[in-house]
User: Which sequence fits this backbone?
């Protein structure tokens, strides 16, 4: 369960007028929720029996199996604890109360036309869990960003050497406004600390977690390369942007099992037929492809000697 929770990003949410960072994992009939205001971290972990007891205690008029209660809870609570938490069309209303070191998030919605109530009774998270879920990944992200800065500085140095070579061979910049000074990493770092950072006015208590950092956080936590985001019209992150692997995406399909098997067998037959046609087409094109490759190789060997060319583009 903790591995599945680690594969999720921390997202900023607003609950009852309070800004928090949230990380919530929903399984088949269990969940684990983490909330933080950067002063404390709270959590609640529930299994099927706990969910059934609390659902009956809070909803006396409702009688349903645990799976039905949990399916409805997931449908209304997951958007409020994810990047969709600011959606005004949410089907649930959430409020927040603090009791000493504990935190209670109350949820109200409708199930089968009757009011449905739920409470996330969160307690203080152990320090070890906070380190595994927040501190260590953030430290790893900072190391990755530092490595990225070093690679970009090295790339700029190579670009300056390339430009200098052009200039030494007589190239002249056609647009003076594009001319830049050679990059010097120590001078850039000094100016960045002295000028750029004060202008940014980075808040030390802010709960902003930019989407690019969420991708990097996920990549560091799961050990995988960051995936490209699909940008919507308003450039706001969506549920499928989070790339969240794990049991929470194993939803029950509306298609009967027998129909699924028939569709699967039909698709396999179509694939076999198409692959057979593809192999026949490939066999007919074998000779031209090989000859073309050989011709390309001979042309490459013939043009291996360097030739002086006039600079084009920005340099003339």
Assistant:
């Amino acid at each position: 369960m903790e591995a599945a929770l680690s594969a999720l990003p921390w997202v900023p949410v607003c609950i009852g007028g309070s800004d928090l960072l949230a990380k919530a994992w929903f399984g088949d009939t269990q969940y684990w929720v983490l909330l933080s205001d950067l002063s404390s971290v709270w959590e609640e972990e529930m299994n099927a029996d706990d969910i059934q007891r609390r659902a009956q205690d809070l909803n006396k008029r409702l009688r349903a199996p645990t799976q039905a209660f949990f399916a409805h809870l997931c449908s209304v609570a997951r958007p409020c604890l994810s990047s969709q938490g600011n959606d005004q069309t949410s089907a649930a209303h959430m409020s927040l109360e603090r009791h000493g070191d504990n935190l209670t998030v109350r949820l109200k919605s409708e199930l089968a036309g009757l009011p449905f109530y739920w409470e996330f009774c969160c307690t203080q998270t152990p320090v070890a869990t906070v380190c595994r879920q927040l501190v260590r990944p953030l430290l790893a992200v900072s190391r990755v960003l530092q490595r990225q800065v070093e690679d970009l500085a090295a790339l700029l140095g190579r670009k300056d050497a390339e430009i200098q070579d052009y200039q030494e061979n007589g190239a002249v910049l056609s647009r003076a406004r594009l001319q830049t000074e050679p990059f010097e990493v120590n001078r850039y770092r000094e100016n960045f600390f002295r000028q750029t950072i004060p202008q940014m006015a980075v808040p030390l208590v802010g709960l902003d977690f930019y989407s690019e950092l969420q991708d990097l956080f996920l990549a560091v936590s799961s050990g995988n390369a960051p995936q490209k985001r699909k940008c919507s019209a308003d450039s706001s992150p969506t549920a499928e942007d989070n790339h969240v692997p794990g049991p929470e995406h194993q939803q029950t399909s509306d298609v009967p099992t027998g129909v699924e098997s028939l569709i699967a067998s039909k698709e396999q037959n179509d694939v076999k037929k198409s692959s057979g046609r593809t192999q026949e087409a490939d066999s007919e094109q074998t000779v031209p492809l090989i000859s073309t490759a050989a011709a390309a190789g001979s042309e490459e060997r013939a043009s291996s000697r360097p030739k002086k060319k006039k600079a084009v583009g920005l340099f003339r």
Q: What stands out?
A: The chain has a mean pLDDT of 74. The beta strands are 11-15, 18-26, 31-36, 41-46, 93-99, 102-111, 114-124. The radius of gyration is 29 Å. Helices lie at 2-6, 48-58, 66-80, 127-168, 185-200, 211-222, 257-284, 286-302.
